[in-house]
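Hi C.,

You asked whether I'd gotten around to modeling the 510-residue construct. I have! Everything is below, sequence then structure, no commentary in between.
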Amino acid sequence: MEILYTPTDFSNYLEKLGFPGEPPYTRGIYPDMYRGRLWTIRQLAGFGTAEDTAERLKFLIEKGATGLNITFDYPTLRGFDSDDPRSLGEVGVGGVAIDTLEDMKALFKDIPIDRITVSLVNCNPVACAAPIYSMYVLTAMNRGISLAKLSGTNQNDFLMETLVTHAPRMFSPQQSFKVECDIVEFASKNTPKWHPVSFVGYNIREAGANAIQECGIVFAHAIAVGEEMLERGLKLEDFVARLSFFFCSHNDFFEEIAKFRAARRIWYRILSERFEADEKLCRLKFHVQTSGASLRAQEPLNNIVRAAYQALAAVLGGCQSLHVDAFDEPFSTPTKTSALVALRTQQILQKETNVASVVDPLGGSYFVEWLTDEMEEEILAYIEKIERKGGIVKAVESGWLHREILNSAMEYEERIEKGDLELVGEGDEQNIEIFHSPDILEEQRRKLNEFRRTRDEQKLDKSIFNLKTTCENGKENTIPYVMECLRAKATIGEITSAFEEVFGTWKPRI
């Protein structure tokens, strides 16, 4: 990186930049961007029981949130019922506990899901995304809501469990990818306004990847899904516009802005050149979350400033929706106070700073344009690197991608230890209120006992058998069979166990 940049540092200005709303979409996917529609304020929420989280969701809506973002507790994310011994100590912690379809109905009771977009942070396709998405669809049907009105996103990213976290039971990358694509296929045909997958760069970045790896991995994954959908007989126009992306906004302000601008250009190139898609299908839509890994436990109020700058980078980079981390997230689920400060951070950006009045205000900056070009070249090179390893699934199966992220994480920590990367306020403490998730284990046990007592065991057994048979033949879409299990009153743990009996489990090769 140089100390100064001039017009000589980049070329083909108009060809690479274009205009907002026009290819290659460097400057934004809509001509008027935020002047036409502001980004969605989509703050995370989830703790305790469905009823506890529903109260927080209503609080956020009342205070001005324009989208919902639901996080689930660790047992739910990994397909364990709350009364499973493996769930002990984790029920309702860090997210909401959802064991049954009845829990899902309670979570969204009195919330207008036909009018507000909902993001479901259900990363594991097999253990969580398949049953949770199915519960959400059945909840809408139970309320008489047209599935054509459901708008929102599944995280549904197989890399979350096979690459980023090592859960007590993991399913192989191949099986996880298959179920992920089942959801994409089913949603494309049945919930046309729903984004059935969000390619998660965020957690990959939080695990230690750098900005180049974050985008390269995400786009290699998206390419694989696109190819699989075409192989299943879908047309590009059936699904590609509903593919969404989830990026991190970290501390390097201009790098993040350039990353978002380069990402739009890369997605346009992938779709138009590789898939020969119509240019209207080539718009990159993405959600951004400020970096949780950058937040510090020392002087936690400084995290308000960190998150605000990261949010500004996301907005200047042209995101479609945004979550700002609360300052107390290094310690716990946000309190109402910290959640409100995070929400107000977005509203101040929208209403007080005037940054939404001009499209791509940093466009034409010599430095930003040079950096956007650099990011584009390096990300494309990393995509090619993954493809030389056999594509995203094989790169995970071999353990190569795990080692890449581990090495990047170690390099970052070494920079901090050597003082090359200075962190502010590391030596001081501040006393703040800590949120304590309610102890809900007994309540979830009571609900589960009552739920199981009232079901038809024969109908349940038949539905589980049908799901396992479908998994064994490997040819049909599994989602209708998951829904059949839910209608027969199967729990999330029973559905996941059915998958596990057929798929077995997997351990990464690191």
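If it helps when you're writing up: The two ends are 34 Å apart (CA to CA).

Thanks,
B.
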